[in-house]
Task: inverse folding
């Protein structure tokens, strides 16, 4: 069974912003982004991009690579749980392509 990963915005909200006592507006100003953008991220409605991860790193909130990895893990987990297209193997019994 695949467990759903935690959105990295939730981690940002609970493990960074709350302990520091930062509001969304204050943190957004410090990060050089809009309040709306940060709100969407911490509420799980927007992804943490590589550019935003670098902003977090520059602000002292961990390494950019960690934020990107958390986002990728979340994206994979939610994609695997979602119903998807039927996909057939590219080969059968070795490396022969199925006709």
Result:
């Amino acid at each position: 069974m695949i467990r759903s990963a935690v959105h990295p915005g939730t981690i940002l909200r609970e493990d960074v912003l709350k302990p520091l006592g930062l509001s969304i507006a204050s943190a957004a100003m410090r990060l050089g982004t809009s309040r709306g953008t940060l709100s969407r991220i911490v509420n799980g409605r927007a992804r943490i991009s590589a550019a935003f991860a670098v902003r977090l790193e520059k602000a002292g909130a961990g390494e950019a690579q960690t934020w990107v990895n958390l986002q990728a893990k979340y994206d994979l987990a939610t994609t695997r749980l979602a119903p998807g297209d039927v996909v057939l193997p590219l080969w059968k019994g070795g490396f022969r392509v199925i006709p």
Observations:
- The chain has a mean pLDDT of 91.
- The chain has one domain: 8-81.
- Residues 64-81 form the longest helix (18 residues).
